[in-house]
């Protein structure tokens, strides 16, 4: 059985090798700690990791408090309910799942009440299924304009989850094109949060700047 240190080193090694092969710079690795206890996050911290991903506020907030490390960045990667925004802002430095008007309005309101800005990624829905989180590609540009008009939000770029049904390349190509389009109007919004345990190597050739990797590092989730 491989240890956490081994799987982390293996994933990091593969990322570095692929980046060297592609002649590109390394992305930010976000280790997804959801459904794992705070001890696992602490072990990752001791191994030098400083960026963790959680998909639920109810879990991420207490975990971040239990760890109590001020030099950690917590990334909220799951759908965020508007009534959880206030708590989300207590620990998250980045929200990858900005996906609708009501959430934008609530984030604008709550970030205006405090110091500093919040990094956000607009999540794009690459499936036909409207029930999945994300802005439809056709609405992306106007939505991004509204995000950028909020002074306390810093639009970092786009986030997507590749469909599980098909190979990820088609979805990654779509999101890479949308990102190029977005950067014409918003050159600073160059981030691309794509790539999970099953497809992070592919994501690198499509320009991923933020990888969200869970099980390949942590093993199967515990609860
Ligand atoms: C859980 C989750 C991940 C990590 O998934 P793995 O397959 O375990 O790497 C990435 N992104 C989102 C949005 C998630 O919910």
Write the layout of secondary structure elements.
Elements (H helix, E strand, L loop, with lengths): L3 H19 L5 E5 L5 H9 L4 E4 L2 H11 L5 E4 L8 H7 E7 L2 H12 L5 E6 L16 H9 L4 E7 L8 H18 L5 E3 L6 H6 L4 E4 L1 H4 L5
Parallel strand pairs: 1-2, 1-8, 2-3, 3-4, 4-5, 5-6, 6-7
Helix pairs in contact: 2-3, 3-4
Pyridoxal-5'-phosphate (PLP) binds next to strand 8 and helix 9.
Short description:
By secondary structure, the chain is an alpha/beta fold. The chain contains 9 helices and 8 strands. β1 (28-32), α2 (38-46) and β2 form a beta-alpha-beta unit.
> Count the helices. How many?
9
CATH topology call? TIM Barrel
Series of secondary-structure elements, N-terminal to C-terminal: HEHEHEHEHEHEHEHEH
The number of domains is: 1
Report on this structure.
The protein contains nine helices and eight strands. By secondary structure, it is of the alpha/beta class. The chain has one domain: TIM Barrel (Alpha-Beta Barrel). An eight-stranded parallel β-sheet has the order 7-6-5-4-3-2-1-8. Helix 2 packs across helix 3 and helix 3 packs parallel to helix 4.
